[in-house]
Amino acid sequence: MTMNKIYDNKWLTLLVALFLALTMFVFVKAERYNDNPISFFQNVSENSTETISNVPVHIKGNVQNYYITGLPETVDVELSGPANLIQQTLEAENFKVVTEDLEQLGPGQHYIKLRLDGISKELHYKLSPSSVNITIAELQTQTYPIEVRVNSDQLAPDYAVGNVSVNPQSVTLSGSGDKLQEISQVYVNVDIPSDASDSYTTSATVLIADSQGQMLDISADPKQVEVQVDIQSNTNTVPIQFEPVNGRADTDYEIEPLTTHNTVLSGDPASIHQLNRVTGYVDVSQVTKEEETQVDLELPQGVTSMEPAQVRVKVIPHRQSQASNPTAASNSPSTSAGRQRSQEARSSAGRQTAPSQEQDPST
């Protein structure tokens, strides 16, 4: 009879059911947090703090015709509040840091505050920095050629830098008028690795500096350019061609190298690789018979050194015969005398024929 009264009591039944439900809930949660039972009780109402670094700053307002300096690209955000809510906020990634409406501010210097949008009202935040001094100026643009500065200190000794090309060759710079007037250097730095032996291609950041080398707060488009550096051997082996000088016209000179037929050129790669031979001039003015002599090789333009720079050669003179050298024969004393006697004979014959023609009346 008593049990029936209990079942008939609606409120008592609801309380018992609620108690059983809470008991089951606690049991299940306790199973999940059996390693740290205290965390179960903290899970519902736990507050925590989370720091997010390098959150981008978004500009509010149309500022396409303005150039803004002093505004950081990113800030650090600290969120505090319920841990579950912070976790959901981070996973959703719907928040962002925004400025005041810069279009409404216009040109000049301004002190502005940054704010965080897109988070729950139950969360609190701190920005670092939370306010900044900025300058808004009329936007101006100029185009500048790009200088490539190559550092080849790590390059192997037998290699050197050849042609250097950059794509694009110029860059568009944007900034305030007074900053653009300070531009003195627009360049990229390229470090050649030690194992480079053919050509080296890399991407480099455009740097803008004043005459003192100080970096300027100016935007470059593009910010990155492609640089190609040709790596060439700074040596070139070429044959030696020997030529006699100051020789006799009636003598041929045979020149035979005794030490080497080639020499190794060192210097500017663009110059040495255009050469296909080196000429050694042999003075044969005093050579009348076979003899050996030392020849100094002349250093071609663009070549810093060559090895060897001296070559020992054998010179063999070959005297030409008069039959094989008509020029020499015609200039010899005997030939000249014969030519003179022949002319005198023809002249004498002419004088003897003239009187007989005058005595013939029929003619």
TrEMBL record:
Residues 320-337 have a biased composition (Low complexity). Residues 318-363 are annotated as: Disordered. Residues 345-363 have a biased composition (Polar residues). Signal peptide: none annotated. InterPro entries: c-di-AMP_regulator (IPR053154), YbbR (IPR012505). It holds the Pfam family YbbR. This is YbbR-like domain-containing protein. It comes from Aerococcus sanguinicola.
